[in-house]
Each structure stands twice: as C-alpha cells, then as structure tokens.
User: Fold this.
Amino acid sequence: MRIAIGSDHAGFEQKQQLIAYLTHSGHELIDCGPASDDRCDYPDFAAKVAREVSVGAVDRGILICGTGIGMSMAANKVAGIRAANVISTEFAELAREHNNANVLCLSGRFVDLLTNEEICDVFLATSFGEGRHAPRVAKIDALD
Ligand code: RB5
Assistant:
C-alpha cells in the first residue's frame, strides 16, 4: 500500500521507526516530514499528509503527534479526509470497518511503538464494512 506519513517533534521518533517497520512489511512510505525532532507545528504536517490522501496520490495517511488529537483535528479540515485518533487495535479495526477512515492519527507520547505497529497493521489490513455504514460515511463526506 502507498502511505504518506508525517509527525511533529513529539511523534518524530516513532515516525522514523514506523517508516522502517512498514517499509519492511512491503508498504511504500512517502515521508512528508519533519526531517528532525526540532520543535514544529503539527498542523503543517497534517496538511501535507491529508492533501496527499485527498488528491489520491496515496492510499492512506499516518500522522503521529504527542496525542494524535491535534493531528486528527487538522487533517479532518481537508476535504475527503476521515482521520481517526486511534490508541488500540480495536479502535483501528472499527475506524476502518465502520468509518472508512483514510488517515490514522497516533500518539507518540502515550502509546508505545509495539502497540502503534500493531495498530498500523490492523488499520492497513481492515476493509470498510459497507452495508449500513456506507450511508453514514456518505453523510460525513457531505459535510465537506
Ligand atoms: C506538542 O507539544 C503537542 O501539543 C502535540 O504533539 C500534539 O499532542 C497535539 O495535539
């Protein structure tokens, strides 16, 4: 899968590790930055990743900040983005199955790397459930 990934300073270390992990798993990662853990503003990187997803340049986006909260707020401002702040594999599965989330927002400060790797695996492997979920997601998209 083609995946755009970005972070702020609080998510930088896990971004680097997730790039290595997901590349090793066979995915193609597009690193939208930052290039160091110097302090920076998470909306700048949320916008870069969200726009890649929005125009169809990639299949999915992954964003990591301290909590994942700011990243999800910013990414969801971009048309066509359904970003989910996920801290468990159960939420990762539901975000895909029920909400057809296309951007995964992770916490680099409160969730360990191993858990975030598992969250990524589930998020990338789970399909949208369609059926009763489809008109609900269509109503989300109509809010753009
Ligand atoms: C940075 O200190 C922190 O505010 C940011 O990483 C993120 O958690 C915001 O939601």
Notes: Strands lie at 2-7, 28-31, 60-65, 83-85, 103-107. The two ends are 26 Å apart (CA to CA). The chain has six helices and five strands. Residues 50 and 58 are 10 Å apart (CA to CA).
